[in-house]
Amino acid sequence: MQIMIFCLFHCFKQLECASPARWVHTPIIAHTTTTVTLKYDVCHTGEKVIGLRYAWSESPCALHKCAIYETSKSLPGPPFVSYADFDEFGNPYFTFDRPRHV
After folding, report:
1. Are 51 and 80 in contact (CB under 8 A)?
2. What is the pTM of this model?
3. Interval 15-55: pLDDT, tens
4. Distance from first CA to last CA of the chain, Å, rounded?
5. Largest Cα–Cα distance of the chain, in whole Å?
6. In angstroms, rounded to a whole number, what is the distance separating the alpha carbons of residues 102 and 53?
7. Are residues 23 and 53 in contact, defined by beta-carbon separation less than 8 angstroms?
8. Is residue 85 within a helix (H) or strand (E), and if so which, with residue range?
């Protein structure tokens, strides 16, 4: 099971970016039955979080050991990728109002 965030160096022109975007592993720091809070400061200075990815290998994780479960049937959540929206200050946020399966 992997939870990763997508880090991108914030720059005004793509050609000025010194480092490419990258996926970074991040731990879960808190959770409830409907939320998951991730450690977000795993990106380097100057990088912003612009994506979130949850994936597992060929088969789901061990029984009752997955990071994310569906609420309706208590099955492991499917892999997904979601990209951030940004508020008026440029801060990223994620909404999961529809399925975004990979």
Report:
1. no
2. 0.61
3. 455 567 778 888 888 888 777 788 878 888 877 788 888 87
4. 15
5. 47
6. 9
7. yes
8. strand 85-86
